[in-house]
Amino acid sequence: MSPAPRSTDEGLDRLEREICDCRICPRLVAWREAVAADPPKRFRGEDYWARPVPGFGDRDAPIVLIGLAPAANGANRTGRMFTGDRSGDWLYAALHRAGLANQPESVDRDDGLELHGAYVTAAVRCAPPDNKPTTDERDACRPYLDRELGLLPNARVMVALGSFGWDAALRGLRGGGREIPRPKPRFGHGAEARIGEIALLGSYHPSQQNTFTGRLTEEMLDAVLGRAKELTAGR
Questions:
Q1: How far apart are CA 149 and CA 153, in angstroms?
Q2: Per-residue pLDDT averaged across 208-224, rounded?
Q3: Which of 17, 100, 119, 162 could form an S-S bond across to 205 if both were Cys, CB 3.0 to 4.6 Å?
């Protein structure tokens, strides 16, 4: 007989179902479904996920990475965070170099990718037009991240991918009862803040806007992930 699921697993399973069924934000629902109905030529004929996207990875992980939102033709298409787009190519290649992923590519949710010691999520779960959720949409999605962070009991380091992820992490930590330092820690690449037992690290988002221009290099992302691993060593 297999062991009974841990309470955190049960909670995460329940949360995932709620996220995937969410239709709270009319604009986001309309956008994610419109993209699926009329995709770019290169994705014609593919079966789009076109739903909110739950977190992905090792549920016992000490490292949690927080992005902005699914990409319209990335996670909105594949159903897995940072999967099927250039940002995901960068992120999962870096996680593989850091020994946190079993392979460097993330093509679709059935490609065999596994994370070890890392969990990937986002502040907003639906693909927003122009990658810009409204404040109301951000706030409507916030309870999902707050609950998710509370269901990852071994998390000790949070890596914010961009300033949006940084602010979402701070809100989530505050929602979990932790006191946020004043003045509020400022985002920057390589920024580091201590929130109780949690270390918060900042990294530029691996978007094409950052990687194509050289604002974010492989070495820069590797350094942040290396620091994350250093902070969890021995845990």
A1: 8
A2: 97
A3: 162
Beta bridge pairs of residue 201: 159, 192
Q: Please calculate the CA angle 35-17-24 and round it to the nearest 5 degrees.
A: 55
Query: In which order are the strands placed within the sheet that holds 157-161?
Result: 56-57, 118-122, 63-67, 157-161, 198-203, 192-195
> What does the pLDDT look like over 191-205, one tens digit per residue?
999 999 999 999 999
Please report the beta strands in 20-87, taking only residues with DSSP state E, as ranges in sequence order.
56-57, 63-67
Of the candidates 80, 93, 86, 81, the one whose C-alpha atom is nearest the C-alpha of residue 42 is: 86
DSSP 8-state code for residue 131: G
Bridge partners of 122, per DSSP, are 67
Mind listing the domains of the chain with CATH numbers?
7-232 (3.40.470.10)
Quote the CA–CA distance of 188 and 201 in Å, as a whole number: 9
Q: Exposed, middle or buried by CB within 10 Å (0-12, 13-18, 19+), for 211?
A: buried
CA angle 222, 223, 224 (to 5 degrees): 90
Residue 90 dihedral angles phi and psi, to the nearest 5°? -65, -45
Closest CA relative to residue 72, chosen from 39, 105, 110, 106: 39
User: What's residue 235's pLDDT?
Assistant: 58
User: Which amino acid is present at 70?
Assistant: P
pTM, rounded to two decimals: 0.95
Q: What is the CA angle 55-144-119, rounded to 5? A: 25
Alpha carbons 171 and 107: distance in angstroms, whole number: 31
Q: H-helix or E-strand containing 193?
A: strand 192-195
